[in-house]
Amino acid sequence: MPSYYPLYVNLRGRRCIVIGGGSVSERKVRGLLDSGADMVTVIAPAASPGLAELAAKGSIQLLSREYQEEDLTGAFLVFAATDRREINEAVSRAGTRLGLLVNVADNADEGGFITPSVIRRGELLLSITTGGASPSLTALIRQELAEHYGHDYGQRVELLRLLRQKVLSNEFHHKNKQELLRKAAQEISALKLDNENVRDHEFIDQWMIRLTTGGSNNGV
């Protein structure tokens, strides 16, 4: 069995090709779009209603025809996600020959990369995989993490980002800035929030003062 190197990739401006127009392809496409991909092309004789809607909105390019090897020219990532084994295998072989990263939906070991199960909370991204050994365990771990890191974590991570910007600025002086940031990360789960906290610079300033003086986080 292959081992995998975990890697997060910036897909903006990079061509991503999805071969196939069914539900599996649609999941792959939506995952790409959620990741910021802006050059997604789907190639399939027929496409799901969801893919057709994305194409109508201009979110993806949809080529309603059979796959051709020339379609891989200039691709950064390739997804072979048809319901025909021979086509997926042909895409994998061609992509490997061209030095491309290919994900093969019906045979993960045949491709060059796999896509993990993902939880997104704003800028917080958690990914889980068992490398295909147990999708059930992957689903259980994902559920546990989703419950622990609720939707409010997007706001909490945004606060940490804004705080970090201020702490690391030349205007802020502290003998141990990294220790201050670690302290903020340790208490972020218990920080009391409301809808106005994020980008509220007064809130950030009060938080910084409390962190430097060792005060309570009640009400902040």
From TrEMBL:
Pathway given for this chain reads: Porphyrin-containing compound metabolism; siroheme biosynthesis; sirohydrochlorin from precorrin-2: step 1/1
Task: Give one Pfam family.
Answer: NAD_binding_7
EC annotation? 1.3.1.76
List the SUPFAM superfamilies hit by this protein, alphabetically. Answer: NAD(P)-binding Rossmann-fold domains, Siroheme synthase middle domains-like
EC class of the enzyme, as a word: oxidoreductase
Q: Which InterPro entries match?
A: Aspartic_peptidase_AS, Met8-like, NAD(P)-bd_dom_sf, SirC_C, Sirohaem_synthase_central, Sirohaem_synthase_N
Segments forming a coiled coil: 174-201
- Signal peptide coordinates: none
Q: Which UniProt keywords apply?
A: Coiled coil, NAD, Oxidoreductase, Porphyrin biosynthesis
The catalysed reaction is: precorrin-2 + NAD(+) = sirohydrochlorin + NADH + 2 H(+)
Per the database record, which ranges form the Siroheme synthase central domain? Answer: 122-148
The answer to whether the entry has keyword NAD is yes
Name recorded for this polypeptide: precorrin-2 dehydrogenase
Q: What is the lineage of its organism?
A: Bacteria, Bacillati, Bacillota, Bacilli, Bacillales
